[in-house]
Every structure is written in C-alpha cells, then in structure tokens.
Amino acid sequence: MRIAFYCPTVDLSDDTPSGDRRMADLLMAALRLAGHEVVIASRLRSYGKDPDASRLARLEEEASRDRNHLTRRFDDGERAPDLWFTYHPYYKAPDLIGPMLSQTLAIPYVTAEASFAGKRAAGPWAAWHKASLPALARAACHFTFTARDREGLLAGGVEQSAMVDLPPFIDTTLFEPPMRPRPDNRRAQLVCVAMMRGGRKLQSFHDLAKALTRLGDIDWQLTLFGDGPQRAAVEAAFAMLPAGRIHFAGRIAAQDLPDALARADLYVWPGLGEAYGLAYLEAQAAGLPVIAYDSGGVSACVTGGKTGVLVSEGDDAGFATAIRRLLQNSELRGRLGSEARRMVLGERSLAVAANRLEAALRLVVPASRSRLRTMP
Prior knowledge:
The protein is α/β, with parallel strands linked by helices. The protein folds into two domains: 2-169 and 349-370, Rossmann fold, CATH 3.40.50.2000; 174-347, Glycogen Phosphorylase B (Rossmann fold, 3-Layer(aba) Sandwich). It contains 13 helices and twelve strands. A six-stranded parallel beta sheet has the order 2-1-3-4-5-6, sandwiched between helices. It has a six-stranded parallel beta sheet with strand order 9-8-7-10-11-12, with helices on both faces. Helix 6 (200-212) crosses helix 10 (316-327) and helix 9 (278-285) crosses helix 11.
C-alpha cells in the first residue's frame, strides 16, 4: 500500500527530542518493514498549548489549503494513497485533514493513540474538543497502546470492535547482541533517561530525589541521561544529596545507549503521568529491572512483579523501599532483569509491531487493493 502518514502534534522534520516524534518514527518504520510505502502527508502542526479560538480558526484554514493541495496533486496524476494513518489525534491536536480527505478519496482512515476527553466538551477547550471528534467517528480502526486509551475511546462512543491493541514497542536491533556481564563488588549503579522539562517531568525528578535521600546507608550512584530547559531545576532537586552520588551525563546517542544501560544494575524513574514510556522498554531490553510509579500508561511497558516494581503514584518512601529491596537481592534483580529483556526482545520489537499492524490493516483494506503480505 501507499500510506499517507500524519502526526498533528509535532513537525516530523524537527529533530528536537520528543516522545511523539519518536513514536511516529517507529510507526512509520514498522509500516515500511511490513512492505508499505509511507509518505508524510502534511507537516501542519495543530497542537495548541491553550484554547485560542482564533488559532483554531487559522489552523482550519491551513488544513483546508492542505486538503485542496493534496487533492489537486492526486487529480494531476500522482498516485493517491490507499490508506490514511494519523498518529495521536486528540483535543489539543485535532486531525483537521485526514477525516475529510480520506472521505473525499474514498480510502480507509485509521489512527494510533487517539484519545477522547469528554470533560473538554464544555469549557474553554470545547471548540478544540469538537474538532477532534471526526477522527473518532471516521476511523475504521484505532490502534490503542494502553488500557487508558481503550477506556477513553469507549467513553467517546467508539466500538470495541474498531480497536486493535498495539502495545508500545521499540527498535530492538541495538539491544539484540548479548549483554556484557555486570561486574560484581562495585558501587551499585542506578540509571535513568528522561527529558528535563517542567510539569510532571520535573515533579518526577523531585520525587526520585526524595526517594534517594532515604538510601544514604547504601553505596549507590545515579547516572542521569537527558537535558532540557529545566536542567538547572533538576540539578537543584538533587543538590540535597551527597557529592559524588549523582552524575549528570547529558544527552546520549541512540547507538551508545545499550552499553550505557548495560553498565547499570537498576532503572529508576517515577514517570508521573507518563503516556507509557519507551525508555522503560529500552532499559528492559538491556536486562534492567525497572522501578516506576503505577501511573498513566506505565503498566503498558512494565509488568509489576515480573519485569520490575510498580509503586503507588507519589509514594517516594515506597519507591525507596523498592530500590533498597532490589539492590540487596541480586537473585531477584537478575530474575526480573532476565524476564524484562525476554519480554521486550520477544514481544515489543519492530517486527512484532509490523505483524500486528499488518494483520489489522489486512481487514481494513481489501487485499486486492493493498497487496498486503505476511511478515516472516
């Protein structure tokens, strides 16, 4: 198939670190692995930080121009897409292009990580909420990453039969070579990878710092990978800890991440309100047990008691207890880490995601049009 791909939350040509951009790239990679041609249909970013009605009106005008431009291109002989695929439409980033254009072209429309927030139907976001509804009504299939996604769509009137589970996944290629054994008889190594932003990200750093102040009797060091506009605030949050305990390592390239993670014993990140957290999957692919809050969609990536420990949201004392328990029990730590690696490499790879996407799209688009094939 030729698939028109669109992500209204971010500009896919921008290389600024973003969870949405990364997931969009992974979805496109999985679709290409399944044998399809994927083209970015539009770079219109409809995301709004505040409910500005005039901005929504301007976005609707831009979307109309994009739709007309695409229609003319296809009328002039360019091959039209067989399918429209929109990633992460919701009330702050409505898809103002795909639902209407797919209807004009008489092609199926699908989404991934769409959401519905009924409480926004009234109040300042009401117009934006209304603009997000055509994506829910038009889609023949919604790929859902988490239970929270599914519950929200059900509340929005989407039929269960129109939803397909697609658990969060990563490109496991760099993690597939055997991990080097972690050396014994050395300071316990904790690690996390997170963007240093405000809001719940910054609160997660504060909660992690509070948990670590409870572990002064254990010899550990935490390496923090990441950067961002709140770097100074994050450093201040950890300033209460003794010198030498915290190492701020800055950004890390994807190709260097597996070795960096493999040098650690435990991945620690509260993840307050995380949509799901691809960094958790990377840590587990490197054989690390994860300690996180049972918050947002984190449980879609970490299975408490099997690949890590999930602590009640906001419980920094419980978080500290979980760290202490795993650092003092190497057998349990090893068992959780081995299961975590097996789970990610076996169940959360690009190839597995490509097969899940393919199986669903085979039902959405007639095989005679799409020439779908089965992944090996």
